[in-house]
Amino acid sequence: MESRVSYSVCSREFRTPVKGFTLIEVLVIMVIISILASFAVVAIGKSKDRALEEEAKRLTALLRMGSEESVLRSTDYAFMVERDGYQFYEWSVKENNFVALDAEDGVFRPRHLPKDMLLGGEINGAAIVFPEKKDDKKAATADIPDEETDQNKKKKSPIEDKPVIFFFSSGERVPFALELRQDFGSTYKVSGGINGKIEYKMPEHGS
Q1: How many helices (H) and strands (E) are present in the chain, helices listed first?
Q2: Strand ranges of the sheet holding 187-192, from the earlier edge strand across to the other edge
Q3: What digits encode the pLDDT tens for the residues 9-57?
Q4: Which residue range(s) make up the domain with 123?
Q5: Tell me: the pLDDT tens digits for 97-113?
Q6: Residue 36 within any structural domain of the chain
Q7: Which end of the chain has the smaller Cβ count within 10 Å, N or C?
Q8: Cα–Cα distance between 67 and 168 in angstroms, integer?
């Protein structure tokens, strides 16, 4: 008789009720998750804007240096805008043509933009239009004899028909207004006038 009573008491002690989440608790958790997610999105957006601002400042500094160097060294420079970056060219008396500055030329080496950044705008009042891709050119010149294409390569300047900003040793300048932006993001403007002044403008609030 005593054993039955003790068994029933033990069984009652281990019967703990299972309690679930109430609707209010679930809603509170969802609100907290949404707030944390919004903070993460804002943080990523600020990080991208910061990278874009740094790239705009770098671009402005390089253009200013190119403008100053052209006068100091009595050499014409050309700044070519490309689809995925930009590059400096220097006039070569020996080659009687503009020659690209490579990685050994320090600050004037070719630069490539991150995949999510785009560079555009206008030069001397004309919108920047990028030339057709090399693959399209190869297809278009497939039927032209090799001798003729080789002659054209020798005569053609590497910056011909390309979006280029010139910095002449005489101090003459070409006005431009470049736009550095991200997909669905902010836009920084880097501009230069005929007076040689080059500056960048931060995006307006809400742009």
Answers
A1: 4, 10
A2: 126-127, 117-123, 176-182, 187-192, 198-201
A3: 444 454 555 566 687 766 767 766 766 655 444 444 455 678 889 999 9
A4: 52-201
A5: 999 998 777 889 999 99
A6: no
A7: N
A8: 8
